[in-house]
Design a protein that fits this description.
Pfam families: HTH_17 (PF12728), PBP_like (PF12727). With 304 residues, the protein is of the alpha+beta class. It folds into 2 domains: 9-152 and 256-303, Periplasmic binding protein-like II (D-Maltodextrin-Binding Protein, domain 2, 3-Layer(aba) Sandwich); 156-253, Periplasmic binding protein-like II (D-Maltodextrin-Binding Protein, domain 2). The chain has helices spanning 9-16, 20-28, 45-57, 82-93, 105-113, 134-140, 189-201, 218-226, 237-240, 268-277, 280-289, and strands spanning 35-37, 40-42, 61-62, 65-66, 75-78, 98-101, 120-122, 125-126, 131-132, 146-161, 183-184, 214-215, 232-236, 246-261, 300-303. The strands form 6 sheets. Strands 7, 10, 13, 14 and 15 form a 5-stranded antiparallel β-sheet that branches. It is globular and about 55 Å long.
């Protein structure tokens, strides 16, 4: 194998014992996570391991749909940020078999409500209160006593072409007729941030070129902007640093939290998870990576 973060299509085809065309088909259907460096498709070793494990278990996500309730089939941690991949790896090292489900914030909370996952993650902005996550937990988990624990803060903003040739600096620019965007899928935190702000300024998504082009990855939307196929996309600052050919316009500091049912608070898996994110080793790892604010990591935000 090459380094674990730069596997090629040919490498992955060899690992999975399938054709290169099958790999491209899996990328298109969102079965397999990938990213682009210029025009080249690349994969991380963790992406491939997650795909293999998900295929074996059959209880994770395929095309944004939860296949089966988890019940006694495993402990499932839901969300799309790499911080959750590393967290699940820490848990496995401690003997806790944590599985991963890769769906957006809104669907993550719905899955928690339906007992299809054990821990959901969210970065959902509420424009009425200018707060993150808590209003959505109350609405999407009605009657469910829950605990919200802070994981990190990230910066959300606009991915634009190098030099920002179209001078995109605010939400109002999405109302211009010379702007083409690429969007995140419904329910993603970045999509909610966009839609809430469009509502506030009175711009309809149908009037924005590219609004209906939905992608399930920050890396992919950033790569599309870098390729010149779109002028702007919404995503996190950390990803912008990984893709050549784009600049980042910071817009909003967001809170990224995890949520679990209060009835599960004493479970060994939950206690292990909390001990890990509150540990110095875990927090130091992310303070060195950059793009993550670990100041209040592990702090209980609210218990319902």
């Amino acid at each position: 194998m090459k380094t674990k973060d730069e596997l090629s299509v040919q490498d992955v085809a060899g690992i999975l014992k399938v054709s290169k065309s099958k790999i491209y088909s899996m990328i298109k259907s969102n079965e397999l996570q990938s990213y682009k460096v210029g025009r080249k498709v690349r994969f991380s070793e963790d992406d491939i391991k997650s795909y293999i494990q998900n295929s074996k278990k059959g209880d994770l996500v395929k095309n944004r749909e939860i296949l089966t309730p988890i019940r006694n089939e495993g402990f499932v941690l839901c969300g799309q940020d790499i911080i959750l991949d590393i967290l699940s790896n820490y848990m496995r090292q401690r003997g806790v078999p944590a599985l991963r489900a890769y769906i957006g914030s809104y669907d993550s909370l719905i899955a928690l409500y339906r007992k299809q996952v054990n821990v959901a993650s969210a970065h959902l902005w509420d424009s009425d209160t200018d707060t993150y996550n808590v209003p959505y937990v109350r609405r999407l988990l009605p009657g469910i006593p829950a605990v919200v624990v802070h994981l990190t803060c990230r910066i959300q903003g606009f991915y634009v072409a190098k030099g920002n040739p179209k001078e995109i600096t605010s939400w109002e620019d999405f109302g211009r007729d010379d702007i083409t965007m690429v969007n995140r899928e419904q329910g993603a935190g970045s999509r909610v941030l966009l839609d809430e702000n469009l509502r506030l300024i009175g711009v309809f998504g149908k009037d924005i070129a590219g609004y209906d082009q939905e992608i399930q990855s920050h890396l992919t939307v950033a790569s599309i902007v870098a390729s010149g196929k779109a002028d702007v996309a919404i995503g996190t600052e950390k990803i912008a640093k990984q893709v050549e050919g784009i600049d980042f316009v910071p817009i909003k500091k967001e809170r990224y939290d995890i949520v679990f049912r209060r009835e599960d608070a004493d479970r060994y898996e939950i206690q292990s998870l909390l001990n890990i994110i509150r540990s110095q080793a875990f927090q130091e790892e992310f303070s060195q990576i950059g793009g993550y604010d670990t100041k209040d990591m592990g702090k209980v935000v609210i218990e319902f």
